[in-house]
Every structure is written in C-alpha cells, then in structure tokens.
Amino acid sequence: MKRIAVYPGSFDPITNGHMDILKRALDIFDEVIILVAIAADKKTFFTIDERVEMIREATKSMPHVSVDATKGLSVHYAKKHQATALVRGLRAVSDFEYEFKLAAGNNYVDPDIEVVFFMAKSQYNFLASSTLKELYIEGVDISPLVPASVIGALKKKHK
Ligand code: ADP
User: Fold this and answer.
1) d(CA 117, CA 44)
2) Active-site residue set
3) Mutate-to-test residue for ligand 1 from 16, 36, 91, highest number of ligand atoms within 8 A of CB
4) What domains does the chain contain, in order, with CATH numbers?
C-alpha cells in the first residue's frame, strides 16, 4: 500500500524551509500532497491561485508531489485522499504550542491520521513567510531562501 501524506499550510509564499521539509517527507512517504489551506479569516499576501501556481512550478520536477487547495479541514482532506499522515514543521519552541494544539485538534477529529513533525534545518530555523516578505520589501537578497518561482511572483506583485 502506498504511504500518502498531506503537507498542509498557508505557504504565503512557499520557502526553502518548506521545500526542505517536503524533501525529507518524501524519504518516508511514497507521495506527498501539498495542501494550501484556504482560511477565510486570514489575510494573505498571495491569492490561493498564486500560491498553488508557485508551488506547482517549484515542485514540477518532483513526480511524487501534487498540489491542491481546500477550504475544509486538512484531516478530512487526508482521509478522502487515502493519506495516513499530516506533515508539519517545527522551527523554534514558539511553534510548539501552536502545533501541539493543532495536532490535538486534528487527533480529536480523526485519530487515524497521524501528525508527523520534522525539525527545521538550522539554516532555515529563522525562516517564515512573513519574515521573507519583509526582507524582500527592504531590498534584501532572498534568492537563497525561496524557489525561483517565488522571486518572479514577488517581483510581479510588489512593483
Ligand atoms: P501555517 O499558516 O499553517 O502555519 P505555514 O505555511 O506558515 O502554514 O507553514 C506550514 C508548516 O511548515 C508549519 O508546520 C510550519 O511550522 C512549517 N514551516 C514553516 N516554515 C518553516 C521552516 N523554515 N522550516 C521548517 N518548517 C517550516
């Protein structure tokens, strides 16, 4: 049986920190679905379509990766797509409390879907989508921190 995992998140935009987690998840799972979560109450810089497009472009050479978006719960999506796990990343202790609660909530909804955590690599430990946008706006070279598709999209968006 194929081991399928769902990697949910805002990905506003996707960074090399996310890409690193994705690659490591592919060592363990046969397939990973990157799931862009549509949160009605969350204001994002990029639209859903822009985020999905950037991720598709960044992962186009990765045959075992697919990209999708959902308005619903990640666990419901996972169950519907025969996935057995959700993948999340942990940077600092500050991520822990949020992720711990989220995992507990997911477990309440569906205890069959395991949440698997990957520790951020030290070079990406500081890297958040919000930090990235601030650095870009201030003229810092962010090209080592994101897939090329994100640079193009940021240029287009922030003229
Ligand atoms: P969310 O809004 O759901 O937290 P994000 O797109 O910010 O979505 O992140 C998705 C997941 O990836 C989260 O579990 C987050 O902790 C993790 N993540 C984000 N940035 C990094 C990074 N630089 N290194 C490792 N994991 C990360």
Assistant:
1) 24
2) 18, 42, 91, 129
3) 91
4) 4-157 (3.40.50.620)
